[in-house]
């Protein structure tokens, strides 16, 4: 998939990790952010990583190719408005977001769960895009080229379109995962998001943030 173009919306730890990782695998990456000028140091660090890397607005990142990653915190709706929903038409959107609530400290809770999810809200806001939930239950250190003692498990993914999930699985293989484990439509992402506080509790108890959940038989 070398020379593929992808827009990464978000410049926090997740956005930078995924931007760096995709570039390392030869992708042409544009990182979308509120303040592109603040990423010049990061841009210098990743230049020469493999693929081309640039920074721009959220709208520029969304229009960069036919694939995008949402890697922002709770301001997802605001970012989608700034990016322009029309820029996501025909786009595969990899949704790495979680509705985390840190108001009570760590571990975080969820802003909402059980009957709704960010995955569903994003798909409803982008009806002409194929939204696939992934990357949201692993640490930034393991999102690309993961390293687990027992080997990386297939990453659980959720989405409505079989084609989008198939393409996501191929992308995960390129990023050195075994692939994706298709576990349902986008409405079921409410259960995947609900795993994240548990992931944080396990990490705190074990004093590690490199773990992941796996389905075993």
Strand order of the largest sheet: 3-2-1-4-5-8-9-10
Question: What share of residues is helical?
Answer: 25-40%
- Would you report the number of β strands? 10
Q: What structural class results from the helix and strand content?
A: alpha/beta
Tally of separate helices: 7
Average pLDDT rating: 93
Q: Helices and strands, in N-to-C order?
A: EHEHEHEHEEEHEEHEH
Oligomer: single chain
Main beta sheet, described?
8 strands, mixed
Radius of gyration: 16 Å
Task: Give the SSE layout.
Elements: E1 5-9, H1 13-24, E2 28-32, H2 40-46, E3 53-56, H3 58-62, E4 67-70, H4 76-83, E5 92-95, E6 100-101, E7 109-110, H5 118-125, E8 130-133, E9 155-159, H6 162-174, E10 180-182, H7 189-206
Q: Can you tell me about this structure?
A:
- With 217 residues, the protein is of the alpha/beta class.
- It has seven helices and ten strands.
- Strands 3-2-1-4-5-8-9-10 form an eight-stranded mixed beta sheet, sandwiched between helices. A two-stranded antiparallel sheet has the order 6-7.
- α1 (13-24) links the parallel β1 and β2 (28-32).
- The longest helix has 18 residues, at 189-206.
- It starts with a strand and ends in an 11-residue tail after the last helix.
- The model has no long low-confidence stretch (mean pLDDT 93).
């Amino acid at each position: 998939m070398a020379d593929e173009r992808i827009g990464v919306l978000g410049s926090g730890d997740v956005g930078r990790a995924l931007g760096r990782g995709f570039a390392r695998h030869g992708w042409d990456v544009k990182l979308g952010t509120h303040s592109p000028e603040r990423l010049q140091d990061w841009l210098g660090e990743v230049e020469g990583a493999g693929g081309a890397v640039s920074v721009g607005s959220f709208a520029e990142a969304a229009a960069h190719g036919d694939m995008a990653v949402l890697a922002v915190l709770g301001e997802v709706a605001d970012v989608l408005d700034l990016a322009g929903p029309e820029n996501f038409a025909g786009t595969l959107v990899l949704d790495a977001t979680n509705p985390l609530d840190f108001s009570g400290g760590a571990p975080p809770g969820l802003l909402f769960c059980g009957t709704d999810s960010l995955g569903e809200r994003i798909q409803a806001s982008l009806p002409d895009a194929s939204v696939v939930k992934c990357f949201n239950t692993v640490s930034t250190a393991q999102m690309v080229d993961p390293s687990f003692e027992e080997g990386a498990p297939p990453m659980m993914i959720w989405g409505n379109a079989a084609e989008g999930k198939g393409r996501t699985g191929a992308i995960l293989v390129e990023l050195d995962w075994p692939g994706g484990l298709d576990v349902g439509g986008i409405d079921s992402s409410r259960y995947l998001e609900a795993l994240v506080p548990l992931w944080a509790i396990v990490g705190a108890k074990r004093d590690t943030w490199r773990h992941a959940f796996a389905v075993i038989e």
